[in-house]
Specification:
With about 250 residues, the protein is an alpha/beta fold. The protein has nine helices and six strands. It binds magnesium ion (MG).
Length: about 250
């Protein structure tokens, strides 16, 4: 496919597992949670229940760690057949709070890429998740200064992107989305007539997975790491200046 960089005005970045590490922290919490409930249920069984309950709660709670904590508690009650103790529930709450308080490390190349792109395009963040959670992560990240706008979306479906584009006052053909999820960051944007660059991350929540064949190839490309976005857009790397642009 060909992205014509001169047509692109706004570049949207997904945040979790595109700008900073996120999914591995969930995996670690899930493993601790399943171990905690071992006397009631095998780790595999607890994990399966947790995923089912999380998916079932998405419409009600949306994404983010608080939703995850509620789903862990519901799973604990379910797999223990109501026998889970208050002390164990307290441990689950602590597990969630520890995850919320964890600083999300930036992925390699983020500062370099944002520094190189920001003189040429309007950069925004378009992310799912809990509002407070995502605002905290962004403020801890030290990269908020690169972005003209932060959009925290309840879902990343076509209708949500349509609203975002109308807020930005640009046609879809002038928007490029960069993210790790084919389902959330690529497919809906491409379907609207925009462009996307997929930067896969080694762990994807199974609910975010779609087969690449489901995405029309003409409006998106995949690069193996975020730094690959620069040659794809014909922008020289700013690596030599990176020392002057460290996060605050
Ligand atoms: Mg993501």
């Amino acid at each position: 496919m060909s992205i014509h960089p001169e047509k692109i005005k706004v570049i949207g970045f997904d945040a979790d597992d595109t700008l900073w590490i996120n999914e591995p922290y969930y995996r670690e919490s899930e493993e601790q949670f399943c171990r905690l409930l071992k006397k009631y249920s095998s780790e595999e069984n607890t994990m399966r229940h947790l995923l089912e309950i999380e998916i079932g709660n998405l419409e009600l709670y949306g994404y983010g760690t608080k939703a995850f904590m509620l789903s862990m508690m519901e799973t604990a009650v379910s797999v223990s057949a109501g026998k889970v103790t208050a002390a164990e529930i307290a441990q689950i709450i602590e597990l969630g709070k520890a995850q919320i308080n964890r600083k999300n490390d930036l992925l390699p190349g983020v500062i370099e890429v944002l520094t190189a792109l920001s003189p040429h395009f309007r950069l925004i963040v378009a992310t799912k998740g809990d509002l407070l959670d995502q605002e905290r992560k962004l403020s801890n990240s030290g990269i908020a200064r690169f972005f003209h706008h932060i959009e925290i979306m309840s879902h990343k479906k076509e209708e949500n992107y349509r609203k975002l584009l109308s807020h930005l006052d640009i046609p879809a053909g002038r928007f490029l989305m960069i993210g790790n999820s084919l389902k959330s960051d690529v497919l809906p944007v491409v379907n609207l007539g925009g462009y996307a660059i997929h930067v896969p991350y080694h762990i994807t929540w199974f609910h975010e997975e779609v087969h690449p064949d489901q995405v029309p190839r003409s409006r998106f490309l995949s690069v193996s790491s975020l730094a690959g976005v620069l040659p794809a857009l014909g922008i020289p790397s700013s690596a030599q200046n990176e020392d002057h642009h460290q996060p605050d």
